[in-house]
Design a protein that fits this description.
By secondary structure, the chain is α/β, with parallel strands linked by helices. The chain is built from 23 helices and ten strands. The termini are far apart.
């Protein structure tokens, strides 16, 4: 369900003389008992409020509308006016509408037969337009999926309805940043890999599954999964009734037993070790038919070993997309102020399509004067913003010593180098070719037109790694790439007589 802000969780519409003191009252109590803020026409109105305008406003401010169709529902025109407004909100606000057919046949509601057809004869003088609107509302709502209460224990059905509403209202929606740009084409590519009809990879797709689970920052658990992340996974499935887990093997068995019969949507975010995947989503056979698993990682080789069905490599923003995102963050508008246009173009070009860099840099520059912009952009050549540096530095986690040294050599010396020339140097230093593949699989470098390329900020991150232990003592650095630093160190050594 696409969410929108609402004062009320649920709006109840019903025919008072049919269900007020039995079914509706019990359902209202069950909803309130689960902490669901429910509007009912004799319990939620402010004193002195005018009934019709207040009811219409309450409908507009509700996330879910429950329509209790009963024998005499259509005989009261206010009920049909409420229903008409509810169906309007369903179309315009994506309000969730749930019909309950209380001892009536859904086809009578849908086709306006029996009491639902007889009711229109008793309205007296009404316009054809109002009759058409009311009939249309009945037809539309009568065709929706809901509950048919005919026989059996009403308490059981009421419990099911209340639990369903609770689950819908508490379905986990991820925060989506304001002013997303360039997402439509990328989402189409991803959803085509999922073979699903949706343009929202988690929030919209999640509603099509029994359970939707987002496991964030799995890499923080290093190479092993501890019991806390199992409990997080189980809490999303079971709520509060989490079984005791004392070790990893026990956690695996519990998860497999719970997952195999249900349809899941699972996102495992930021994985950096195969053992993490084996522990949390061991194989597709762990999950019920129709489940979908999305894994995000900086390590392409990890996905190859796990055996994913499809692979999507995230691409940077095109210049126009990046320019728009930068403008929203730096100027709170979709274009920069005229006298800042050239500086903005420089900042966007330097960010090279990396959304993180664009947002961090633009937010930092927001509200600053033009001389401050010029100063900060000049400084950026020497010192990347720490918010960007810290995130990118995590890409080095998991590299062994040889791979890290190779990356630092490329970051300091070989940006844009011919790949064949570099391989000759690599061979002379006894660096195996497989090390280069590791760097490519982790998106630290890429090869284009037979040359080695590395993103501006990733290159700076590598150079900062060399500098950071001795920022004011260049003589202790392991590598030199700036002629000024080389001259300074050589001059210093000569002055000391070295």
């Amino acid at each position: 369900m696409a969410s929108f802000d609402g004062r009320w969780d649920v709006f109840l519409t019903f025919r008072g003389e049919d269900t007020r003191f039995n079914f509706t009252n019990h359902l209202y109590s069950a909803l309130r008992g689960k902490g669901i803020n429910t509007f009912i026409d004799d319990g939620g109105l402010e004193r002195g409020g005018e009934i019709q305008p207040t009811l219409l406003k309450a409908i507009e401010e509700s996330k879910v509308a429950i329509v209790i169709f009963s024998e005499n529902y259509a005989h009261w025109r206010w009920c049909l006016d409420e229903l008409d407004k509810i169906m309007q909100c369903r179309r315009e606000k994506v309000q969730l509408v749930i019909p309950i057919f209380y001892r009536v046949d859904p086809s009578d509601v849908r086709k306006q037969t029996r009491s639902f057809g007889e009711a229109f004869a008793g309205y007296g003088k009404v316009t054809e337009e109002s009759v058409l609107r009311r009939r249309t509302a009945l037809t539309e709502d009568g065709g929706l999926s809901g509950w048919h209460v005919q026989h059996g224990y009403e308490s059981k059905i009421i419990h099911e309805i209340a639990q369903h509403i609770f689950d819908v209202l508490n379905s986990k929606q991820l925060h989506i940043d304001d002013h997303l740009v360039g997402m439509d084409s990328r989402l189409e590519d991803i959803t085509s890999l999922l073979h699903m009809e949706s343009n929202d990879v988690y929030n919209q797709v999640a509603s099509q599954f029994e359970h939707a689970i987002f496991l964030s920052s799995v890499s923080r658990h290093r190479t092993t999964i501890n019991c806390s992340i199992y409990k997080k996974l189980l809490a999303d499935i079971l709520g509060e009734n989490i079984p005791h887990i004392s070790n990893i093997d026990e956690g695996n068995n519990v998860i497999k037993c719970l997952l195999c019969s249900k349809k899941f949507h699972v996102v495992v975010n930021d994985v950096n070790d195969l053992s993490q995947l084996n522990s949390l989503v061991g194989s597709p056979q762990w999950f019920g038919q129709g489940s979908r698993i999305i894994i995000t990682t900086r390590d392409k080789h990890l996905l190859d070993v796990y055996g994913v069905d499809g692979l999507y490599e995230a691409k940077g923003l095109e210049f126009e997309e990046a320019f728009q995102l930068f403008s929203w963050k730096a100027f709170k508008a979709n274009h920069p102020e005229e006298n800042f246009k050239n500086l903005s173009e420089y900042a966007v070009a330097y960010s090279d399509g990396l959304p993180l860099a664009l947002k961090v840099l633009a937010s930092f520059l927001y509200g600053k004067t033009m001389p401050e912009w010029e100063s900060e952009l000049q400084k950026l050549q020497r010192e990347p913003k720490m918010g960007i540096h810290n995130v990118l530095k995590s890409s080095l986690d998991g590299l062994d010593h040889t791979e890290k040294q190779l990356f630092l050599d490329i970051a300091c010396f070989f940006m844009g180098e011919d790949i064949y020339s570099f391989r000759e140097i690599q061979d002379s230093c006894n660096f195996p070719e497989t090390r280069m593949r590791v760097l490519k699989d982790r998106s630290l470098i890429h090869i284009s037109d037979n040359r080695i390329h590395i993103h501006n900020f990733i290159q700076q991150m590598g150079q900062q790694t060399v500098i950071q232990r001795h920022p004011t003592q260049p003589g202790k650095w392991s590598r030199f790439w700036n002629p000024k630093d080389i001259l300074a160190v050589l001059t210093q050594n000569m002055d000391r007589g070295n």
